[in-house]
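Example 5.3 — N-terminal acetyltransferase B complex subunit MDM20 homolog
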Amino acid sequence: MAAKTHVDSSVGERRLRPIYEWLDNGNNKKALQEAEKVLKKQPNFLCAKVLKALALLRLGKEEECDHLLEAVRAEVPADDSTLQAMTICYREVHRPERICAIYEAAVRKEPGSEELLTHLFMAYVRVADYKKQQKTALQLYKLKPKNPYYFWAVMSVVMQAHKAEPQLAQGVVLPLAERMVQKLVNEDRIEAEQEVQLYLMVLEMQSKYEEALRVVEGPLGEKLVSYVVVPLKRASLLMKLERWREANILYKQLLREDMDRWSYLMNYLTTSLKLFDSGQQNGNNNTMNNSSSTANNNINNNRRNSSSVADSPHEQLGDDANESMWREPDSSPTACCRFLAHLVTTSEKESQRRLRGPYLAQLELFRLLSDRGMDAEPLLGKPADLLIRYVELFAEKPCCVSDLRRFLPLLPESERSSFIQKVTAATVWDPVGGVADLQRHVCGLQLTRMLGAHLEMTETQRQVLATELLLYYKKSMHLSTENLQTEFACNDPYALLAAHVLVDSYLATGHSAPLVRAAQTLEMALERSPSNFHVKLLLLRVYSVLGAGAAADAVYEMLDVKHMQLDSLGYLHCAQLAALGQLRAAAALYEITLKFFTANYKDGADHLTYSYKFGSFLKIMEFVEFCERLNNSLHYAMTTVERMLLEVMECPTAAQARTALSGMEVQPWKDSVPWDALQDNRDTSILVGWEPPCRQVTAEQLRLSFGDDMALLRVRSLLLRVLAAAAELPGAGAAADAKEAVLNGGDAAPAPAGAERAAPAELLGALAEELRRALEAAAAREAPPPRPLCSPPPSRLHLLLAAGTAQPLVELAAALATAVAGPGADRAETERRAAAAADGAAAATARAAAHARAQAEAALSAEAGAALAERRYALAHVGAVAEMLALAALLLGAARDTLRPPAAAATATASARRQRRKKQPPAGVGLAAAAVVPPSDGATDGGAGAEGEPGAGEWAVDCVCGLAGALHAAAQTLDSALDQWETAAAMDAVAAVAAPGDEEAAAARLAALVLEPGADAGAGAAPPPPPPPLLPPATAVLVRSRLADSARSALREVRRVLQTKAQYLAQLRRV
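Solution (predicted structure tokens):
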């Protein structure tokens, strides 16, 4: 029998192998054919059935796949190949709970299978069912008494504490986990390092630091095999126990091994100052009093006159004194100063390279003492001297500026000018120098900007500085000729600085010529340094401000943003693209982003299972928190809502919108956004601008920006729920189904009773009122002032509010909710709100049309630069109005379908199809030509409304038709203005803005004199020849074409939506 079973198994594996191969190669049709061949020979081969289901799933036949899987589930399979194949299917349809169900059934069938129990445990891990994890792990331990299974149960208890209320976790759950581990400790059965780490985690979660320290220092600590783990863990526990003396000595010992570790230096300073605050001083520091004045009096007077802070008093001490210094705590600022000076001298003597950590630690000590109100200058010298010394030593390192950023505020305002002069003298330009000299010069320029030297410049000075920087860039290009394509060019910072100076000019004047020149500068730099993401990010922001969505999207593609960056950097582009009119590109980016967030669930579950499998218990909680952070990302929620709204807006008719909303599973009665859990995952430090402190992004600005995005999300999610509520109106679905039946040659479904419409209508009205309140709350938020491009872009909230497109939709939804309420509908209230909606839509459309015409007219005049500066706002306004008209058309379509009985709707649809056959406009015509003529007397709304319509009367139908007519006229008005903008020859006028003029040429000549002092023109000397163009003509042409193409593509996208909805509105107004 055993031999026969083995033969059957091998035959089955041989028959399944081709199916697996086709599935792995992505040829699902071939896999389906092979599976059917196998099933013809073995109809009851469960694994073949599951593989067939998998092939069907990947071919898009999810319903057939589900039926086949349910049939296999009923057979309760227990073989690994079938269960694994079913697991793959359920993971691909995002139903991990069914994986638990199949393994539960298999374990009931074979309760003694270690493999099945292990798979069941991992299935519970995927759904985060911690109690069942614990139960299954203990079953495994009873079946096979192995330590890993037991600690799976312990970790499951720890995760229950992570999710439980703090009181329950501290009082019940964590003590249970501690007792479970203590049991194995008492039995001396702890085997692995990971088990000790889990024990320490349990103790630390209960704040039992003393017990944890005993574990580290006891026999169990010997199992912590890493040479780094034990000292670091001991030091951190000592700090948590506030045993500052021991912690200070331990961190000094760690610094002896690695003097450049910044975390060690920070903790050393923390413990020293804590000792000083508590009055715990040893014999070597007994001259130090607790007060800062006494401390300063005890400093050697010669210290002030020393030329270097590194001149240590320990130079006179012998080896014994030096050795004792490492073993005794430092409990005063004086002792800290001595120790850091000793680190400086020791690192200079013993290290093969100069270490930055000890020098920065002296600056950090100065900062900490200053924050305490103590005078640190007698101890450490002037901050300007410390900073200048650091610049002199490390200016050739690209990290020098970022190292000093946090310490520049230490400079008194009165010393900044002299400090800038010293920095300039220490980092002078060397035309024949190498990369190190160039980096020193760049460092000086960046520090000068960070100290605010660019804030008070005039426009001419900014233009001269930008030209100088471009000349520096040109003259240093030879230093990067041998770089690989993946390396940053060493002279890229010149181009970045020039671009930021030009952006400053744009912010000061509001004219876009400097911004276009900045785009040209960055394009030139990107051509020679294609891997520099700093250049790409700034160019992306510049194009976005110029309203060039397609150009920004091209740069975004070059960034190759993926994985976590889709969340942390999505705010730079994904949230801005639709506002710039690039609807198709926005839809594609939304899909890519949402696929990442969807895959995060699967990938996160995989990482968790691997962590349990390999005993990496410390990583489990990290992975759980990471997945929760992604699931609660504000960008995730915003992208989800925006993608749904865009998909609904693209639907040509209300019937198709209803189908789309049904597929999205939008529940209008339920708010699915976890408002209290939403998190800000933006990485706002990625953009470098070397801005002075007054222009840097603050935590308060980020908080306000996050609040703006939250308000925007609330408005947009409510708008989506309003659309879903309109689609849920009983008559809307029935009428839509009737129209589809006519199109397919079938019969219409019977109309629902009028009484069933009351509840959905009330829901629609309630959501409209909630949306109105959300808009009022959003309008109360203050719009942020213009900020540098290294700051996060402003929220779309204020652009939408300025467009005034949300309020008409509120009034329209409220009017429709009243109109379809039934026989008791309030006609006066409906007509009042309908009039308000029509007036609001007309006003918003008029403003958008005015923006469009102004863009077309200004682009043909001398004001082309200002037109570019306003293009982004004009596109955002136009796009918001187009969206308003599109969504309003869908709301009107849903209301019309509700008010009409199915038979009348079906008749009207068939009539409209006949008229379209007779009078189909040619492709490419405008809206005016595509508009249908008013209905004849034989097809009036009054006739249709007289056919016994239950609920609203003929006046409601007339109201819908009147609103459709008003919105149709508004769509025509806007489309006409957009046609004028699109077809204007203004696009080519960008070249005049981008080309350098006389002012730039003069600035270039001046900069050439500055850079070439030997070319001084004396009396009678010939004037210097004009310099070559700083920006290649091809770059100017590239930027000009990208700006023009972006505007044209955005207008085409907006007009496409407008024309589609205008045709639908034309049908609604006459049916």
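Remark. The longest helix spans residues 1033-1070.
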